[in-house]
Specification:
single chain, about 180 residues, 7-stranded antiparallel β-sheet, 3 helices, about 20% helix, about 30% strand
Length: about 180
């Protein structure tokens, strides 16, 4: 599997499932917009489609278990989705530490061509990294890393799928030795 190390806290793995995931895009966006009409405070929604959730959990777990020293997950996880376009975007710094996690992973359906990057903040303002998501890649990072989506120019909805491995121990990448 192709691996990219952007820095100590951001790794990417080739994930050739964009076309398969795209089959679920309308279902995800419809559910997202339906929930946003009744709950204006939500940002992410839980994926309700068990086939899709199981597929993502299986594939992300395979990568995590192949490339990280991990303890078994402490909780039954779920997969969440965030949808944005050029009219709807929530660009706030956040992390996933509230999920009792150790490892976060994200992949995208229809990432935009212009804008729509994700920014990662590590320690100092000079430590901000901006990444343009690409189809067929999954990005792993520690759950405590602050990040935010950047607004996009494309009007096409893009979907971010999020998974967290919940553990009480810090993972170590077996290729680089990076301790998260």
């Amino acid at each position: 599997m192709e691996f990219k190390r952007f820095n100590k806290y951001l790794h990417a793995y080739y994930f050739p499932y964009h076309d398969y995931l795209k089959e679920f895009k309308d279902e995800i966006t419809n559910e997202y917009y339906t929930q946003s009409q009744t709950d204006d405070k939500h940002v992410d929604i839980k994926i309700k489609n068990k086939e899709l959730e199981g597929f993502i959990q299986e594939k992300f777990n395979e990568i995590a278990e192949s490339y990280y020293v991990l303890t078994p997950s402490t909780h039954e996880g779920n997969v969440q989705a965030y949808v944005q376009n050029n009219q709807r975007n929530v660009s706030v710094w956040h992390n996933h530490i509230h999920n009792i996690g150790a490892l976060s992973a994200i992949t995208y359906i229809d990432p935009p061509q212009q804008g729509g990057q994700i920014e990662f903040f590590y320690n100092e303002p000079s430590d901000i990294m901006r990444l343009q998501p690409a189809p067929n890649w999954v990005y792993f990072f520690p759950q405590w890393v602050y990040h935010r989506p950047i607004s996009q120019k494309d009007d096409l909805d893009r979907v971010c799928l999020l998974w967290v491995h919940k553990s009480n121990k810090r993972p170590v990448n077996i290729i680089t030795g990076d301790l998260w």
